[in-house]
Amino acid sequence: MHPLLKAFEGRAAATSGRGKDPVNEPMIRHWCEAMGDTSPAYTGPGATAPPTMLQAWTMGGLSGHTDRSSAYDELFVLLEGAGYTSVVATDCEQEYLRPLRPGNTITFDAVIESVSPRKSTALGTGYFVTTRMDIQADGELAGTHRFRILKYAPATTAPGPTTPAEDRSRAQTDAKAKAKALRPRPVVNRDNQGFWDGVKEHRLLIQRCASCAALRFPWLPGCNDCACLEWDTVEASGAGTVFSYVVMHHPPFPAFDPPYAVAVVELAEGVRMVSNITGLPYDKVRIGMPVRLEFLRVDEELELPVFRGSEG
Ligand code: ZN
């Protein structure tokens, strides 16, 4: 790997960070409500925080943290200067060493743990950067949070210096790509083939466990409730409500026209799915709004289940 990049490994990304609030019951309650987690372990006397909240206690909010180091920014400047201008979060891993309880004071240190060799991916060529955060509760190590991003040069533009002729030709290619930008294709595999077969017939199919009859969505090989691998399907009635939504402004993506609303729709059958809301402007979407399934032909090859809302 490039020695300039290697030199970032081990550099601090944040030192002596401090959680903006101690571990507290209101944040735990909001989290559990949002996740639909009703475990009694997270309420009442002796309550602990859900382990997966680990990162929440370290977040800087809109005002940010003042204890970030410049290493991460310097690494970004270096990669962007070399043409790796795009970024995507790829995965995170957490380890839990002790439970967090209301009242615990949170401190943390973050380090750039590794910068990968240059990798080619479907998105483009770039470097995976892994940051490890060690999180302490009342001064004792409580868990670690590893966060990995890919900093990459989009596949349509090659990094490096170019001649004016190359620039012109690239601009033409980019304009063409933009004009023809297609929505991403769904990844169809053995586990979800049945769902997409249903979409072709304008049927929204939900998996039903053959053993305990629990419904599940998205499609999975096994039942989350009883681990049974046998299943059949039920067809959704098409009625649903907006359970939650976000409005996408950034990052811009050629196949989409921001701002647009992306919703989690709760189907009448009880399962939830992510989809688009059609039939009304993005700023008229509301939580609890009734919506109705329809099938949207996106292009020649792609048809998607979406949900139509109506104002008032
Ligand atoms: Zn089951």
Descriptive overview:
- The protein is an alpha+beta fold and 312 residues long.
- The model has no long low-confidence stretch (mean pLDDT 89).
- 16% of the residues lie in helices and 36% in strands.
- The longest helix has 16 residues, at 164-179.
- It folds into three domains: 3-154, Thiol Ester Dehydrase, Chain A, CATH 3.10.129; 185-235, no CATH class; 238-312, OB fold (Dihydrolipoamide Acetyltransferase, E2P) (Beta Barrel), CATH 2.40.50.
- Bound molecules: zinc ion.
- Residues 209, 211-212, 214, 223, 225-226, 228 line the site of zinc ion.
Task: Sum up the structure in keywords.
5 helices; six-stranded antiparallel β-sheet; Thiol Ester Dehydrase, Chain A; globular; OB fold (Dihydrolipoamide Acetyltransferase, E2P); binds zinc ion; 312 residues; 3 domains; alpha+beta
Would you summarize the structure shown here?
The protein has 312 residues and is of the alpha+beta class. The chain has five helices and 14 strands. Bound molecules: zinc ion.
Average pLDDT:
89
Tally of individual domains:
3
- CATH fourth-tier homologous superfamily of the largest domain: Hotdog Thioesterase
Q: Count helical runs.
A: 5
- Corresponding CATH architecture of the largest domain: Roll
Backbone CA Rg: 23 Å
Say what the CATH topology of the largest domain is. Thiol Ester Dehydrase, Chain A
Lay out the secondary structure.
Elements: H1 3-6, E1 12-18, H2 25-35, H3 71-81, E2 86-96, E3 106-115, E4 119-120, E5 124-137, E6 140-154, H4 164-179, H5 193-200, E7 205-209, E8 215-216, E9 231-235, E10 239-248, E11 260-267, E12 272-278, E13 290-297, E14 303-309
Parallel strand pairs: 12-14
Antiparallel strand pairs: 1-3, 2-6, 3-5, 4-5, 5-6, 7-8, 7-9, 10-11, 10-13, 11-12, 13-14
The protein binds zinc ion.
Zinc ion is lined by residues 209, 211-212, 214, 223, 225-226, 228.
